[in-house]
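Task card 7
Instruction: Convert sequence to structure tokens.
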Amino acid sequence: MRGRDLNHAIARASSVFEDKPGEHIALVRVRLPGLTLVQTNKMATLYLLETRAQRDYICSGCGRGIRRGNLHFRHDPFAAARIFRGQTTTHWCRKCILESTPDPKDPITGRIRVPAVRVLARTRGIDQLDLPLFEPVRVEVVGIGAILAQKLAVQPSLIHRITPGEFEEFICERLFAMGLEPQRVGATNRRDGGVDVVFWPRYGSFPFLGAAQMKHHRNPHAKQGPSVVRDFAGTIAGHSFNAGLLITNTSFSPDAKWFAKHHAKLLRLRDFSDIKRWLVCNFSDEAEWREIPSSIELCPGVHVKVR
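Output:
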């Protein structure tokens, strides 16, 4: 990984995924007395919203009480940090934050940003530059797709709560487990020519080039309609691809399946039921052959049994 990309990955660690294909996340954990934080780069950053306390809280910095109705600052972790690292909302009194020289308030989100170490250094008497006070920092670079696969294998329904970018990274990891070499085309929700991932065999004597597009839905009951299937079939036909995969974390409508069956011979539709098989590395199930006929008739009276 290039140094610039590694720094970017560290800065985005709280979102648990990196937009660039095949790259990884660096998580740095630093322990302070009475508090464990997942750090990005040298220190964790608090993204705080000033609001009135809905009930009595204890300040995470100084330990003093925050009375219900009083102004205070609330830090809400990213959704992925809640799901995969168990982080929870923390509350901070105005004295701890305002005396720690926070950044100016963001005019769009209304939040202010301040390094957690700076706040704790002031409230607990820790010198920010006195690094020996910290336990040894351990940096571990891991593939986020493999982590997601492990989590989803235990609780597949989490696939509806991850982000579209994480979904793409997870599918890339599963394609790799199948013996394919996946390469993401670009960042999620950016121009990519209608193709999210290009893939080809890592080994074997029969090369081919495939394209994949992922459709992620937070509503598990949402169905993918035929318009996306038609568009992706046109993309496959307009390039030098030998196969196409359209993958959703929910299911496809009957019209979408009908179009793929009759008008998109190179396209394979894979949904949540297929993903659940992939999670346990079941890549050779009979369901994977559903688009392949058991036999074909090459000419009148000449039949070839396929399987």
